[in-house]
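Entry, Tuesday afternoon. Goal for today is a structural model of the target with zinc ion bound, before we commit to ordering more compound. Inputs were pasted exactly as handed over by J.K., no edits. I checked the ligand SMILES twice against the vendor sheet because last time a stereocentre got dropped in transcription.
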Amino acid sequence: MNEPLWGIDLGGTKIEGVIITSLEDPKPILRTRIDTEGAKGYDHIVSQIATLIQSMEKKSGLKANILGIGTPGVLDPILQTMKNSNSTALNGMPLKKDLENKLQLNIELANDANCFALAETYWGVVKEKCPEAKVVFGIIMGTGVGGGIVINGKIWNGHHGIAGEWGHNFLDESGGPCYCGKTGCVEKVLAGPSLQRYYSSITSSMITLKEIAQRDAQGFDKAASETMKRLHYFFGKAISGVVNILDPDVIVVGGGVGNIDSVYTEGLESLKQFIFNNRVDVQILKPKLGDSAGVFGAAALVA
Ligand SMILES: [Zn+2]
């Protein structure tokens, strides 16, 4: 059976849909999007997804039997309701069940960081540079910090459905209180906005992380250099906790912070002083698929 794969990436502002030929041939048959309009609430998000699927069926002349969806947050494996989503309208809601009822098809649902890890494994940088990898840790360091684990080509969800969620591990008190109720989370130190805030705490000026990195490279801005040092030092420290437990073959770093080149050199260097090993062999790679990883990974869920 080689039916086309249907995937949906549910984002805060857009819902993106794709139909791809097969796992071996990820050529999109159709790719389209619709506004989430999340402010209108949960029921509206569900009907926007239904509208998108109907329009995809109409445009392609195909019919979905099973659909992969990448979401912010995860489905609690016991309660079967959503949790940990920054699109807060989803939290506590039985999204999978509601969509299955509304669309009359089977749904495979996974966290967007998991979809990212899956897409990079099948079609991205892992396939290109590390095709033998059995364990892949995909991380997203953007406005938030998340992660997903792929083992032998399948997402590892874990007992609570939170496997790979290193963003809310404790990292350092200096990160301050987090929306999750804890203090000093990885996200509060290493997310883009957290690093920008750190720079602003020294200079009182708010600039992008990209600008901070440029200023550091030019060598005239001490606060920029301190901010980048903070990123490199704590990146190694935070990743070491994951490497010591999971010991993945490869780590892929997505999100805006993953676009900073020094993460792959100085960040990797910092890891050496923290892991319980006398050398670092794990590859830390920049992703290849860009913004497409989420929706392609969602489609890969049903392969
Ligand atoms: Zn937190």
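The chain has ten helices and twelve strands.
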